[in-house]
Amino acid sequence: MHVLPYLIAAYVFVIGCYGLATSRNLIHAVGCLAVCQCATYILLLAVGYRDGATAPVFSDIQPGSRPVVDPVVQALTLTDIVVGATVTALLLALVVQISKRHGTVDPDELRELRG
Amino acid sequence: MADAVVVIALLLVAGAATAAVVNRDPVRQALVLSVLGTALAVLFTVDQAPDVGLSQLAVGSALTPLLIMLAVRKVRRRPAESGEDGEK
Amino acid sequence: MNPRARLWLVVLGGAGLAALLAAACLRLPRFGGGHHPYGDRAVHAALTRHTANTIASVNFDQRAFDTMGEMAILFAAVLGCVVLLRQARDEHRARPRPAEVAPPVRRYALVALPVALVTGLYVIAHGQLSPGGGFQGGVVAATAVHLMYLGADYAALERVRPVEAFEAGDALAASVYLVLGLAGVPAGTAFLANTLLPYGTFDKLSSGGTVPLLNAAIGMEVACAVVVLLARFLDQAVEIEEESGK
Amino acid sequence: MKAPATLLAVGEVLAWWAALLVLWLTLISTVHTLEWVVGACAAGVGALAARAGRRAVSDR
Amino acid sequence: MNGWILAAAVVIAAGLGTSLWGVSTGPLKRRVVAQNLSNAIVCPGLLLLAQGYGRTSYVDLALILALLGPVGTLVFARLLAGELADDPPSARVPTWTVAAVGAAVVLVLCAVTGPGRAMVKLLVVGALVVGGNLIASRALSHGFPGVDRG
Fold first, then answer.
1. Which of C24, C53, C200, E7 has the largest CB neighbor count within 10 A?
2. Please, which contacts does D44-48 make with residues 24 or more away whose CB atoms are closer than 8 Å?
């Protein structure tokens, strides 16, 4: 249990990389990159977790009444998710542009075109 | 008890990530990514990070699927010569 | 390189990476441990500045400069999409036919749109109190607008969404963030230092000094950015077609 | 625009505004003056969006 | 107090596990139904977790999921209308089962919470999740009869 979240994060990262390397469709590759990003969220939040603690949000509990988890990593992850989504959008825009210019979204065919 | 639910959420995320990689068709992958987003939101909630969970739900439930599906639609509307299945 | 050799290379590299990651995992502090020096200090700092949601305090007060960087990434990504997905010279626009939508679905979209919009605004406005904030609420509000496309059709969406206004709003929100950061400088404090406004009463909308204002600026920025982003994608997927003789 | 149509439009927006303000009040936990002001503004935005959405679908 | 977390664990493990299996295997029409049901079953799970951790502010998560989950399903229903038109998905039994679970969880939590603002909020979430689930199911089967492009 003490290392399980870290191992899951590593597993998700590796499986995402595998999908990225073996992908035959650039849209699928962008999805695999999103999977890789998930690994960073899992890792960051696992680092900040504390047993028996609750969220550091004091709108409905008294400050100091319960132990709280680490807010710094949560803030990092939070912005990461929204910015990650727009970066995904940018990559998808690139894929659309590639499909327009070369008529395919298969990385292997693209390599042949380049010669 | 709290640990058990964390383990369940972690295993669901790992399963969803695997499914998202092995489904090679972008449309099917988008469906799995949507479920992966929901599983991640559950994981973030049990990790006591509701802010992050909200962020994931806002992005993963509608925005990412919409972006991927629009990209798929645009790519598939290419002329039939490219080998993609064209307009229905 | 043939695909088979490449697969072997991927497997080899992946195995090495996995071994290194697993070794690193075993040396990390144990999951659920009680030693969080930065976290404890961040919580303390947030409480002294009367911000109930520590994460909002970290984002918009203690690390406000980093959030400005995140905002810049967001802005640049949207700019990149706008440039990449512009209408090229060999393309033309075709009006999509109006869509036929089942009445219950259309009614649901029309009711859910304002409800989701108000919920998004609630998430933004209460960012410094309860879970939420500009990043999340902005995405919710922007998604709400696109119910018009899902529940009706693209023409209906275009009527409720003037893209130019959202582009201007995007830039305006980004500059508001900068101006709020600079506002303290003439008074002799640092850029983005939270000393401009009184900290207010704990757990009230006006608490936290500049946190609610920066939060609102980010909310507007994210909402406008997502709308502009989706507008480009929808244009490409629905309206823009290539000249057939290309 | 004719007077009855204007009246109808104002009524529609007001009805949405009231409903969304009630929604806002159920979402929040403590009520005070600033909360009312912000809630009223948000509900106003939502009400205008609701009317714009309905018009975009029905007027064509 | 831990009973709530246990209930949430059961709901999420069973519901999301089944949805995951449904969404990653089988024909497209089964996958979209599983995607819809995953949202509708996780939402009561999140409400149970909020109750289990004793944090009313976690209810916002369920609220956002109840609002945006059906929107995500509408995305798929809208953009896959062509593929789904020939062989529309109909999953009456799972859909109503999930709706019943959602309604039951919300009613139990309302009874525990007692009258007040929090109860109204729970009812709003319940109405959104059950209504959204049913509408999204409707949208998947013949929701967009005249959409082929645009």
1. C53
2. D44/D17, D45/C117, D45/C118, D45/C121, D46/C114, D46/C115, D46/C117, D46/C118, D46/C121, D46/D16, D46/D17, D46/D20, D47/C114, D47/D13, D47/D14, D47/D16, D47/D17, D47/D20, D48/D13
